[in-house]
Write a structure and sequence with these properties.
The protein is an alpha+beta fold. It folds into two domains: 1-27 and 114-124 and 133-148 and 325-354, Single Sheet (Outer membrane efflux proteins (OEP)); 31-109 and 150-320 and 361-505, Outer membrane efflux proteins (OEP), CATH 1.20.1600. The protein has eleven helices and eight strands. The strands form three sheets. The protein has a four-stranded antiparallel beta sheet with strand order 2-3-5-6, covered by helices on one side. Strand 2 (112-125) and strand 3 form a beta hairpin.
């Protein structure tokens, strides 16, 4: 047995020497080290020039930005999105897959061990004697293999998977922000429809009074029957329009049900008109350059660039020889009894070097493909950044212009109310015909509807600005490479709620 132990020690020394020599070689990584691509960022937002700086209290609550609007119903629905939205579950599962791929890539850096056991019975015959013989063979062996990462191919592959996992985490955050934004926009549009329905209810009540007025005037001989018919037509038209609003409300309610992961057939929201108050000011990032750190879609695009950069190193490593170390030690004999004995010991250890000499241009094509994929991701990243700036400018412009429009619209509504009052008095006095009343009331209804639409648009534009600014998200919430490898989700996957001071979009 001492002879067997001595042999095993020689095996271990040989394996250690091979591994040590390979480890000394595994010190470099081919391919370019990653540098974030440069992008052109403006010094300031063009549409932000008239907004006041934020106060310390003007902050977006990361992960709960919708609380800015102070609507308990919206708060409850937004919480359901994070819990039950199926699109978010898809994105979360994709992140888990990406994280598993990181673990798989990292495992290639380490040796693999295997245990092999076999038993066989064989026989044969000899031509000279015509007889036969049989024999048993039993073996058990421990095998090991390792590919030293001499050129950094495995490290680059791991780096690519880690960056892809971080991109997936950012995409999860972007999906969450998108779902929350869709919910808020649909919710405020629903409340706008409720306000429209309330407006029609008030209008129908007024038209009923007008109909009664014409009937009384007709009975007294002061009005023609045509006035009564015109008033009836006006009333029925308004009632039909009010009923038609139910279609839009039902569709919005169903859309919200989908976002919160509920069946549309069992989901409902009680009517409540949108409050006739302007939306609160939106906390505003001070510099456009900060947008690169605040939008998860930009962070995802940047991480995809890093992954593509690492893949260039993987492709370049194919031009260099690969080294693998294999070893095996065990026992082989004719029977299990006494198998573990020095005479039955066998072992082997040694390196294997492989280098592709001719591949008809395959490696060169892989290099060109990796370079082109990197260029594609860089262009996509820069396009995402430009789109982000555009969305912020669009939302800022919308809020500014809608604010200006609201001032004029309120004046128009006040004038329309006064026009109806004066025209009705003139009709009662026999000064004008009822067609003048109908015209004034139609103008009043149209102006009132535009006022409600304008208020809803301002709330939707506020949500769009919050989304364009990233909803208070920060790239600091991305899981680090170590966190991805260790299986920790990081703030992005779980939804952080820390706060970030910034500027405020306040006209």
């Amino acid at each position: 047995m001492s002879q067997g132990h001595s042999t095993l020690r020689r095996v271990l020394r040989s394996a250690a020497l091979c591994a040590g020599g390979a480890a000394l070689l595994a010190g470099c990584a081919v391919g370019p080290d990653y540098v974030r691509p440069g992008v052109t960022t403006p010094a300031a937002y063009k549409e932000n020039r008239d907004w006041h700086p934020a106060q310390p209290a003007d902050t977006l609550d990361r992960g709960r930005w919708w609380t800015l609007f102070g609507d308990p119903q919206l708060d409850a629905l937004a919480e359901q999105v994070d819990l039950s939205n199926q699109s978010l579950k898809v994105a979360a599962a994709q992140y888990q897959q990406a994280r598993a791929l990181v673990e798989s890539a990292r495992s290639a850096l380490f040796p693999t061990l295997s245990l092999n056991a076999a038993a066989s019975r064989s026989g044969g015959s000899t031509a000279s004697t015509g007889g036969g013989s049989t024999g048993n063979t039993v073996s058990v062996a421990l095998g090991a293999s390792w590919e030293p990462d001499i050129w950094g191919k495995l490290r680059r592959a791991s780096e690519a998977q880690t960056s892809s996992a971080q991109a997936s985490a950012a995409e999860l955050a972007a999906a969450r922000l998108s779902a929350q934004g869709q919910l808020a926009q649909s919710y405020f549009t629903l409340r706008e429809v409720d306000a429209q329905r309330q407006l029609y209810a008030d209008t129908i009540a007024a038209y009923q009074q007008s109909l009664q007025l014409t009937q009384n005037q007709y009975a007294a001989g002061f009005a023609a029957q045509a006035d009564v018919v015109a008033a009836q037509t006006q009333l029925k038209t308004a009632q039909a329009a009010a009923i038609n609003l139910g279609v839009q409300r039902a569709q919005l309610e169903h859309a919200i049900a989908l976002l919160v992961g509920q069946p549309a057939s069992t989901f409902s929201i009680a009517p409540e008109p949108l409050a006739n108050v302007p939306p609160p000011p939106v906390p505003m990032a001070g510099l456009p350059s900060q947008l690169l750190e605040r939008r998860p879609d930009i962070a995802a695009a940047e991480r995809q660039v890093a992954a593509a950069n690492a893949q260039i190193g993987v492709a370049r490593a194919a031009w260099f020889p690969s080294l693998s170390l294999t070893g095996q030690a065990g026992y082989q004999g004719a029977a299990l009894a006494g198998l573990v004995a020095a005479p039955n010991l066998f072992w082997s250890v040694g390196p294997q070097l492989a280098l592709t000499l001719l591949d008809a241009g395959a490696r060169d094509a892989q290099n060109r493909q990796a370079r082109a994929a990197y260029d594609q991701q860089v262009a996509q990243y820069r396009q995402t950044v430009l789109a982000g700036f555009q969305e912020v400018e669009d939302a800022l412009a919308a809020l500014r212009i809608l604010e200006q429009q609201s001032v004029v619209q309120d004046e128009a509504l006040a004038a329309a109310h006064e026009s109806v009052r004066l025209t009705l008095n003139q009709y009662k006095g026999g000064v004008v015909s009822y067609i003048n009343v109908i015209t004034a009331q139609a103008t009043e209804l149209s102006t009132a509807r535009n006022t409600v639409n304008l208020l809803g648009s301002r709330y939707v534009a506020s949500v769009q600005l919050i989304q364009a600014l990233g909803g208070g998200w920060s790239s600091a919430q991305l899981p680090s490479a170590d966190a991805v490898d260790a299986g920790r989700d990081g703030n992005t996957a779980t939804g952080s709620s820390d706060k970030s001071a910034s500027g405020s979009a306040r006209p």
